[in-house]
Amino acid sequence: MTTQRFIQIFRWVAFAEGLSFLILLCIAMPLKYFAHLPAAVKITGMAHGVLFVSFMVLAFEALGRLNKKATWLGWAFLSAIIPLGAFYFEKQLQKENE
Question: How many domains, the chain?
């Protein structure tokens, strides 16, 4: 896989992870607590968990492929656990690789 293709996949996963986090926080959690629909969190939470792990695996892979420092991996982790952080991280990754 080429570096450009890797970056493209990483950006897609970062965007999807950020979107799944927002859906989990803004839609699924209120449905669970206000509409008593816990299935919303189970489904969305599972999808978000898979995307979060994928994002972190790709971030770890980027250390070698993109010659990033370990602190960059820390910023990737922080951006994944802060709402809207993954969108910012994805845009920064795009700017770095234009």
Answer: 1
